[in-house]
């Protein structure tokens, strides 16, 4: 039990990038767009945040750079799929390929450079509470942001008029268009929000989780985030649950590696990926559930009559 | 009330030379129209005449290429549906612009331009639905509602905006006769309040019944304006299609003895959350007859079609029989080899693939039944494109399919021509069993007559023909016997000579109630 | 000003032919701008990237070596993507094929037989196909998204390969380097011509392309693939099964990816190492789209993308750029290809924000 409590803060730190990227993608998918470029936007966010922090000396400036870079990079996807109606699956893949390439090129000179870590910001008063305080209230800024974001996205989707419009566009873009909603405008904004979240997730990796730059440092987290959205059946609170479960799996395997147990480290390292597949299968088996929850227009091209 | 005025100055809304071009094609060409308050104005025309394009321009969904729209005599540019609503125009769409995943109240909220709290909307909607006799539960999810209920949402949310002009696009095409009657009552109430109603339809009987004036469109142009109550169905139809419609000679079919297609106590659970389960469906079609299955959309028609065609297999092989053999476990190709042909409701993406050439669409349903003619090279199964093209040419000639180019993409054909091709593709094989779902849905009158004639001829040559249709006129025109499907149950088939529209209407409202002799006031 | 697109009545065959070339031209322009931004002379950089590698026999051989896996994998993917099965785990299937094909050369290095090489190649194909069968089963039987499952399996395969070459299959005389023993001569895929470097994998790629092209364009199977790709509903109406197509397309592309993997190991690297692919499985996705899923065009596209690998290496040596530039080029290329393909189905117009018809109506 004590071991678990000790692991909790690291689990939360490991879960935060997954949570951020998945919540962003959830909004994108709720609007009816499937952006498979999460991994690419994330790694662009990671390298830009690292570079920004190096240039300014401030991890917070770096974080802002990461967010902006993620959003800007997602615009490429938006332009191709929303304005030029290109295939969303293929465009998302190309965003990932381009992101991995660009980040490798930009980050080439940073390899081996010590990073600037974003320190913890204990919340005065709350952080002193025994047991709970150190676990919940002694984290970095991005952690707090990730929790606020989940609450904000839930409120936005289910309590605001604009959120209702966004959901309706994902359900039936032709009807939404007929009612006079700006389908493409809303989708652009959703895609950019998703990009910003992925960028922030990347920033967390290169500023908090492992404050340094290594090539391909996202290591498939963008893809796991995509799976989390399916796992959560497009509900923000369930994304939180899923992200923390995955955080536990990846920290668990690290600890198992430390203890040895005689299991090759490579097998333990595959656990998060295999867990993703297993979870995906368990959720998707229930065709009825997936069919009811999937935004009906997900991935479908929209060309308005004019 | 009647046709109070046809001059522009008293008109609520008028158009002058309104035109919409798509490339070189003019969907609407110089339309002049005027609608006054307190009238129900019919907009008549065949499919493709330009009715929908016209109203989409009036509602700001499409942008006119030329011409002017005037509101109370002043020129207006209606750039979006929101602008239309602000002007005072409300619209009830043919294909409802509803969101299945949302609740009734959320759907209504979306059509209002201001952010009004959901609770207020629910209350206001409840008041309106009481006032106009349109019962609705604001917290129900649209996915769970019937088509009639969905239309009520559309009407209530249009009324909430207090429009002066209400546009209804083919409102009765999805209703039972009884539901339609109630709609007419609501419309008359609205007219009494001095509102204008633009009523789009191709159903001449109901236009004659409730409309004060009519404007007729053909090929995107106005071809007539009249008082429909002074016209006959024949003269209205003449204006719509430009000349007399060729009537179909009395089918005069004489059924044989052999039952060629039947189902026995067929029950199939729903395949998806959005589909209907079939319960205890028993039917039999004999050689030389046409059995028509009437029903309101979404009552199990496509599920029944899928079970008959083999796109859905059933557990009990004997529940579906084709030409005297158990077919419930046979694939669609195997059923075709037994001599059956199938025409599904949806043309694009089911009966045909739009991006493939016509000749390739021949292969779609005939690669197995005509493998000797179309395939070569044994196990390699190479396509013999020459003979496939030859068949396509034969079908085009037999069904008078109009197309551009030698072997164009299926998507380039008009709906009517593609449907003629799809029906012709099956008839070309001279099937002993033909199952057709909505044979003339969205098809122009000329093509529809051609298709119906072909179905009758096929039956006369000894085939068993099963037609699933929502169009009662069509059913009475061609059927030997009529059954009604409702909620996944099928009524007993009755000879069309003794069947009445009124009885069909009651059966549409619920099979069990009618069979047990209970009075059903309406379908709600 | 805004962009408006309008669906064409029929697809434009003119743009279908032109769009890959427009995309290539745009990529070269974008690349030139990128080189200029990096402070290099764009023309000499582009020359050393795209032209110089074509000027020697040695580098032409290298081009064949790099293109072979790209073409083999992309040809398999063309079947997958045409039938709308998104297998993006070819990289994992490539590794699985390499591992399975290496069983005999690594575990029974002394066994020689004329049958050895064919057995190795077949085992490679089986390995790739089996690995591809996992996402296929998960999709067909459990409805699980194949994009995510096939991709996750790439990471698993990479880790598994890493374990094999560091653990059970490590060369005992290899000074602790993470690698297997060298393949024996009889287990090595020979060069196409004596003295050349390019191995038979390139020939296999050409054969696979021609055979697959024939299947897609001239046989009922190809028709089935196209119909199911357009609409599974229409496919069912035709009597084709989407479920069986999931298996067919995954096994087919997995086998070709596996063949590419074992050819790379047996023909080029000659042993297993922790990393045996510079992302061929992902780059092949670009190849498949650049070749517009037509196996014959894929041969050309594979050579173009193979060139970007060589160009990346050359650029590193001659002008001191990171070889990552190659991946950036590849990303650009796919973006432009997808963007230009819009022209095939749609007309694109620049429209001024003030609506022309609105003005007319107001007069």
Protein architecture, described:
- Chain C: Its main location: membrane.
- Chain C: This is ABC transporter permease.
- Chain C: The chain crosses the membrane at residues 12-38, 58-81, 88-108, 114-134, 146-165, 197-216, 246-269, 275-291, 298-319, 325-346.
- Chain C: InterPro entries: ABC_transp_permease (IPR001851).
- The complex is a heterotrimer of chains A (306), B (524) and C (363).
- Chain A is 73% helix and 0% strand.
- By secondary structure, chain A is mainly α.
- Chain A starts with a helix and ends in a 13-residue tail after the last helix.
- Chain B folds into two domains: 8-241, 3-Layer(aba) Sandwich (Rossmann fold); 259-351 and 415-515, Rossmann fold (3-Layer(aba) Sandwich), CATH 3.40.50.
- Chain B contains 18 helices and 23 strands.
- In chain B, strand 9 and strand 10 (221-226) form a beta hairpin.
- Chain C has helices at residues 13-37, 42-51, 57-82, 90-101, 103-107, 116-142, 146-166, 201-218, 220-230, 232-237, 242-269, 280-290, 295-318, 325-345, 356-362; strands spanning 2-7, 346-351.
- Chain C has a single domain (38-320), classed as ABC transporter involved in vitamin B12 uptake, BtuC.
- A two-stranded antiparallel ribbon of chain C has the order 1-2.
- Chain C is mainly alpha-helical and 363 residues long.
What sort of overall outline of chain C do the alpha carbons produce when their principal axes are compared?
globular
Which CATH class of the largest domain in chain B? Alpha Beta
Instruction: Give the beta-strand count of chain B.
Output: 23
Shape of chain B: globular
Membrane topology (chain A): Multi-pass membrane protein
Protein name (chain A): ABC transporter permease
GO cellular component, one term (chain A): plasma membrane
Subcellular location (chain A): Cell membrane
Task: Please give a handful of descriptors for the protein shown.
heterotrimer, A: 306 residues, mainly alpha, ABC transporter involved in vitamin B12 uptake, BtuC, 14 helices, C: 363 residues, two-stranded antiparallel sheet, 2 strands, 69% helix, 3% strand, globular, disordered C terminus
Offer a quick outline of the entry.
Chain B: One of its GO terms (cellular component) is plasma membrane. The complex is a heterotrimer of chains A (306), B (524) and C (363). Chain B is of the alpha/beta class.
């Amino acid at each position: 039990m004590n071991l678990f409590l000790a692991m909790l803060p690291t689990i939360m730190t490991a879960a935060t990038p997954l949570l951020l990227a998945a919540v962003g993608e959830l909004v994108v998918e709720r609007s009816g767009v499937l952006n498979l470029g999460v991994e690419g936007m994330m790694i662009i966010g990671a390298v830009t945040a690292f570079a920004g922090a190096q240039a300014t000396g401030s991890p917070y400036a770096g974080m802002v750079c990461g967010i902006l870079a993620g959003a800007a990079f997602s615009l490429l996807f938006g332009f191709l799929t929303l304005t030029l109606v290109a295939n969303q699956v293929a465009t998302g893949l190309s965003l990932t390929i381009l992101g991995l390439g660009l980040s490798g090129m930009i980050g080439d000179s940073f390899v081996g450079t010590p990073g600037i870590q974003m320190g913890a910001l204990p919340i005065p008063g709350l952080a002193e509470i025994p047991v709970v305080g150190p676990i919940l209230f002694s984290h970095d800024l991005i952690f707090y942001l990730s929790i606020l974001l989940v609450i904000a996205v839930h409120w936005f989707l289910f309590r605001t008029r604009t959120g209702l419009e966004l959901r309706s566009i994902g359900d039936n873009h032709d009807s939404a268009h007929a009612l006079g909603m700006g389908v493409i405008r809303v989708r652009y904004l959703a895609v950019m929000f998703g990009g910003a979240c992925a960028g922030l997730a990347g920033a967390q990796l290169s500023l908090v989780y492992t404050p340094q730059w290594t090539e391909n440092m996202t290591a498939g987290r963008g893809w796991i985030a995509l799976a989390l959205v399916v796992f959560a059946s497009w509900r923000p609170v369930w994304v939180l649950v899923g992200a923390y479960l995955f955080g536990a799996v990846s920290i668990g395997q690290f600890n198992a590696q430390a203890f040895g147990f005689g299991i090759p480290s490579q097998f333990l390292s595959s656990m998060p990926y295999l867990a993703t597949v297993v979870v995906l299968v368990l959720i998707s088996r229930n065709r009825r559930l997936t069919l009811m929850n999937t935004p009906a227009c997900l991935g479908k091209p929209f060309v308005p009559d004019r | 009330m009647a046709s109070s005025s046809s001059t522009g100055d008293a008109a609520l809304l008028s158009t002058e030379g309104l035109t919409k071009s798509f490339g070189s094609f003019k969907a609407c060409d110089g339309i002049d129209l005027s609608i006054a308050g307190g009238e129900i104005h019919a907009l008549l025309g065949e499919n493709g005449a330009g009715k929908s394009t016209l109203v989409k321009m009036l509602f700001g969904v499409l942008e006119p290429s030329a011409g002017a729209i005037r509101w109370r005599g002043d020129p207006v540019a209606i750039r979006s549906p929101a602008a239309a609503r602000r002007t005072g125009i409300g619209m009830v769409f043919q294909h409802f612009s509803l969101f299945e995943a949302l609740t009734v109240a959320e759907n209504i909220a979306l059509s209002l331009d201001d952010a009004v709290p959901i609770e207020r909307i629910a209350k206001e909607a409840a008041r309106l639905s009481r006032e106009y006799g349109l019962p609705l539960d604001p917290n129900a999810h649209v996915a769970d509602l019937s088509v009639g209920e969905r239309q009520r949402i559309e009407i209530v949310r249009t009324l909430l905006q207090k429009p002066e002009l209400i546009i209804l696009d083919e409102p009765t095409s999805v209703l039972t006769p009884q539901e339609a009657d109630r709609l007419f009552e609501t419309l008359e109430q609205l007219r009494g309040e001095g509102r204008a109603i633009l009523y789009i339809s191709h159903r001449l009987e109901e236009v004659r019944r409730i409309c004060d004036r009519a404007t007729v469109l053909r090929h995107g142009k106005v071809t007539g304006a009249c008082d429909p109550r002074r016209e006959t169905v024949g003269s209205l139809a003449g204006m719509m299609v430009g000349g007399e419609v060729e009537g179909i000679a009395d089918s005069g079919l004489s059924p044989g003895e052999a039952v060629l297609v039947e189902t026995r106590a067929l029950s199939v659970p729903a395949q998806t959350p959005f589909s209907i389960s079939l319960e205890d469906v028993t039917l039999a079609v004999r050689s030389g007859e046409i059995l028509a299955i009437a029903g309101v959309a979404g009552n199990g028609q496509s599920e029944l079609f899928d079970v008959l065609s083999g796109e859905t297999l059933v557990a009990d092989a004997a529940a579906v029989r084709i030409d005297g053999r158990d077919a419930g476990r046979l694939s669609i190709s195997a059923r075709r080899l037994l001599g059956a042909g199938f025409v599904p409701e949806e043309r694009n993406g089911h009966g045909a693939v739009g991006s493939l050439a016509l000749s390739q669409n021949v292969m779609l349903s005939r690669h197995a039944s005509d493998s000797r003619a179309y395939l070569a090279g044994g196990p390699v199964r190479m396509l013999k494109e020459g003979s496939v093209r030859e068949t396509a040419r034969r079908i085009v000639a037999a069904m008078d399919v109009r197309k551009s180019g030698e072997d164009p993409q299926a998507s380039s054909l008009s709906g009517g021509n593609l449907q003629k091709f799809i029906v012709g593709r099956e008839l070309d094989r001279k099937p002993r069993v033909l199952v057709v779902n909505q044979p003339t849905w969205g098809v122009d009158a000329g093509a529809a007559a051609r298709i119906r004639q072909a179905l009758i001829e096929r039956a006369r040559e000894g085939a068993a023909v099963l037609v699933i249709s929502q169009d009662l006129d069509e059913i009475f025109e061609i059927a030997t016997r009529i059954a009604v499907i409702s909620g996944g149950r099928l009524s007993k088939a009755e000879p069309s000579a003794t069947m009445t529209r009124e009885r069909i209407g009651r059966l549409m409202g619920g099979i069990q109630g009618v069979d047990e002799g209970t009075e059903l006031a309406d379908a709600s | 000003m805004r962009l408006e697109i309008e669906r064409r009545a029929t697809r434009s065959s003119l743009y279908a032919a032109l769009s890959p070339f427009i995309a290539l031209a745009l990529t070269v322009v974008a690349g030139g701008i990128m080189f200029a931004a990096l402070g290099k002379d764009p023309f000499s950089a582009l020359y050393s990237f795209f032209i110089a590698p074509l000027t020697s026999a040695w580098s032409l051989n290298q081009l064949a070596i790099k293109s072979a896996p790209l073409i083999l994998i992309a040809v398999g993917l063309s079947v997958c993507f045409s039938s709308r099965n998104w297998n993006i785990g070819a990289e994992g299937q490539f590794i699985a094929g390499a591992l399975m094909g290496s069983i005999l050369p690594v575990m029974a290095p002394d066994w020689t037989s004329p049958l050895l090489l064919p057995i190795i190649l077949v085992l490679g194909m089986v390995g790739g196909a089996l690995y591809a069968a996992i996402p296929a089963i998960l999709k067909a039987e459990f409805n699980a998204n194949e994009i995510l499952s096939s991709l996750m399996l790439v990471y698993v395969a990479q880790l598994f390969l890493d374990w094999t070459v560091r653990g059970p299959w490590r060369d005992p005389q290899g000074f602790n380097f993470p690698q297997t023993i060298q393949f024996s001569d009889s287990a090595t895929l020979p060069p196409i011509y004596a003295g050349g470097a390019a191995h038979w994998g390139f020939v296999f790629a050409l054969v696979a392309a021609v055979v697959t092209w024939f299947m897609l364009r001239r046989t009922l199977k190809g028709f089935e693939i196209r119909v199911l790709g357009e609409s599974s509903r229409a496919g069912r109406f035709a009597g084709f099964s989407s479920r069986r197509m999931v298996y067919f397309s995954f096994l087919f592309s997995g086998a070709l990816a596996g063949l590419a993997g074992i050819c790379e190991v047996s023909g080029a690297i000659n042993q297993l190492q922790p990393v045996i692919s510079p992302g061929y499985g992902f780059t092949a996705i670009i190849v498949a789209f650049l070749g517009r899923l037509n196996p014959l065009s894929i041969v050309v596209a594979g050579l173009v993308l193979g060139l970007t690998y060589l160009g990346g290496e050359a650029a590193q040596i001659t002008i001191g750029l990171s070889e990552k530039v190659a991946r950036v080029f590849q990303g650009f290329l796919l973006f432009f290809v997808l963007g230009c393909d819009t022209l095939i189905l749609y007309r694109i117009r620049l429209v001024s924000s003030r609506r022309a018809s609105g003005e007319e109506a107001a007069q």
